[in-house]
Amino acid sequence: MKKSIVNARIITMDEKMTEYKKGFLTMEGDRIVRLGDMESFQEEGEIIDGKNGILMPGMINTHAHLGMLPFRSLGDDVKDRLRRFLFPLENQYMNKNLAYWGAKYSICEMLLGGVTTVLDMYYFEDEIAKAVDAMHMRAILGETVADLETCDSREPGSGFAYAEEFIHKWKNHKLITPCIAPHATNTNGEESLKRAKKISEIYQLPITMHVAEMDYEMKYFKDTYSMTPVKFLDSIGCLDESLIAAHCIHLSKEDIELLRKRNVGVAHCIGSNTKSAKGVADIKALLDSGIRVGLGTDGATSGNTLDVLTQFKLFANFHKLKNKDRSIFPAQEIVALGTIRGAKTLHLDKLAGSLEVGKQADFVLLETDSANMFPVFNPYSVIVYSANSGNVDTVFVAGKCLVRHKKLVEVELQTVRNGLLGAMEEMLGSDIVKTVN
Amino acid sequence: MKKSIVNARIITMDEKMTEYKKGFLTMEGDRIVRLGDMESFQEEGEIIDGKNGILMPGMINTHAHLGMLPFRSLGDDVKDRLRRFLFPLENQYMNKNLAYWGAKYSICEMLLGGVTTVLDMYYFEDEIAKAVDAMHMRAILGETVADLETCDSREPGSGFAYAEEFIHKWKNHKLITPCIAPHATNTNGEESLKRAKKISEIYQLPITMHVAEMDYEMKYFKDTYSMTPVKFLDSIGCLDESLIAAHCIHLSKEDIELLRKRNVGVAHCIGSNTKSAKGVADIKALLDSGIRVGLGTDGATSGNTLDVLTQFKLFANFHKLKNKDRSIFPAQEIVALGTIRGAKTLHLDKLAGSLEVGKQADFVLLETDSANMFPVFNPYSVIVYSANSGNVDTVFVAGKCLVRHKKLVEVELQTVRNGLLGAMEEMLGSDIVKTVN
Prior knowledge:
The first copy, chain A, is α/β, with parallel strands linked by helices. The first copy, chain A, has 16 helices and 17 strands. Chain A is about 35% helix and about 25% strand. In chain A, strands 1, 2, 3, 4, 5, 14, 15, 16 and 17 form a nine-stranded mixed beta sheet that branches. The termini of chain A are far apart. The mean pLDDT of chain A is about 95. Chains A and B meet through helix 2, helix 9, helix 11, helix 14 and helix 15 of A and helix 2, helix 9, helix 11, helix 14 and helix 15 of B.
């Protein structure tokens, strides 16, 4: 049966940036079958009143660690908390159950914040896939492999077997694309990186990892190889269009040229990168080169919120300041980074990222009744500079309504929180948790 | 009759940063009369269940232009939009009615976002005071005077008569402190600045203005006086503890030393200053010198949202990055800037800014039921890095409940919006509005 959202201000984010001031969107099954001005609307099927809200494509989070949710607000302002708290906590307390419930809760938060597609890399990725599947979200999910002992691979490198099994299990899922995720250039050696690349080639799947994020990573590559991490990845054949490189804070001009030539996608995590005082990637230079760039929240221990709206505001202010120009990156371009450009970064733009006939019905309705959402002279400005996750009224993924009137449709948030709390029990009694803050 | 909020996680922001993990706060009339752990609670009077939310002092917005609300989302990303759009719009369309409704709407938004005290400077300040009075908010309100034609003073300088009349009318109000607000160092000449200073001395009231905000302001003072604006203000006797200087982006070491010596308060507007690509004030240096600093949203055309929670997140990320240190400005210090330090900046710390017996019952309850508000290992982290205005559940000012369950108690937001829309009618038909975006 057809379903239509009517009486909404529609920003399609298609190539022409088509807008409908008072428009409708009709879907059938999982796809958009029609959209336009209300004058051309023909009533048929179920009608949902958009109440003058802003209808936009579902937002795309190109870098996250969903399972880390239970550690949020622990040691935010502590130096090197990654090695002091997070790695030990993960190694000791992360298990299948905690990963599943952490991911499920994260998905609830993302959906409630208007995110319809996520690229995740974490451990126990099979559990995370189960949560994504249960929640009907769109995702690219990468099992993390590293040359370290990790919570799901006690023998360094044993994550590869897990990863291949994971890929086999999920490779034909409608909404989930499995992938492989070496942890980072500095936590995976050459052999391990090449092995991951090989797997991505065999299965024709994406590969994602942290690249040029850390000061010590840059120093290590300079000291060891007299190369940047990007140049190193290229030298071992790991740089091509299948790679989605997260962070990319520290890039030389040559690195940018390499990323462009190899058609690498970049997941830019402005919130995480600045809260941790690491730096601001030169997104202007990347975009000027034609590189595909999307926005990522990073894990909830790094960026705290999992919605792309938070990233919009931070992106605007950091990049306007960096470029000393208030007119650079007008709001419309920033919304594009969180929608169509994010989809391109993940090679999902044939399915998602804009509202167009034939594409999947992944969209978000922002209400404009709240105090912060008025006036709407420019809907992109309202989205970037005013909106927060609390303004997300309705969310559809692949034609299915997952959020309505700011509540999850299929599950109670409190039920998921209770599940997560149960899984956190052991961790809550740990000395680390008691002493962090 | 006594009223108590019970079962809340209380952060008092008092000198010892006292916290109650499961606490209560009892008020009588406009004052806090008791607070502590639930174990010591004695039931009496009305009980409000805090439902494990976070109870904190009402937030303090030290710099705003409430009347500008109707221009929000107009020309955000346009170069020099102040002179191209905003000044012309103000000159042509701002009037008593629009100022009143713009302010009233802004107050609704602030209250719904947890702001209980605001320092405003704008035109038709008498209208703004009427709106503040009607809404029962705490405020310092300054009529803006400038050596330009302004919307409420067609003869340059005629704002002084308005200002004195305004001060007379409001100087004995319980919640409102009138003040005088020269527009800026570069839009008020020496005579006008001295005259404003004189008025502030006669009535023993604060004075506020924009200081060291603009590149062209810095150049003007260098070219004309071979001085910084701060040094110039000092040279004409305008620098003392009655001054609340907004922005202060461009300060020399000598300026900082002068601000300290004269005990000037600074209203730091990180969101506005970075969105406009102007710069990041050196707040670490100001605080290290012992200067009183609070946070400000600026007008809704500059910072867009009017809540202090937005400023917290931006403050954290910008100042951590500026100082290349993720551990600088831990979340607790940032919350202090929006509460007790803001109150000190405005010389209102005997009344507000922390939850202490004898102080005014100005407080905010943040719910922790929403997805973004869990887990709460560190309540300050949750406030700074996760919370948004949509998490504000309950707000009291001077013992009166103004927001409950995320809705205004005394008025419907939609009624105020309708009033504002009516006042905007003429402006909505203007060519400027039609062509800005």
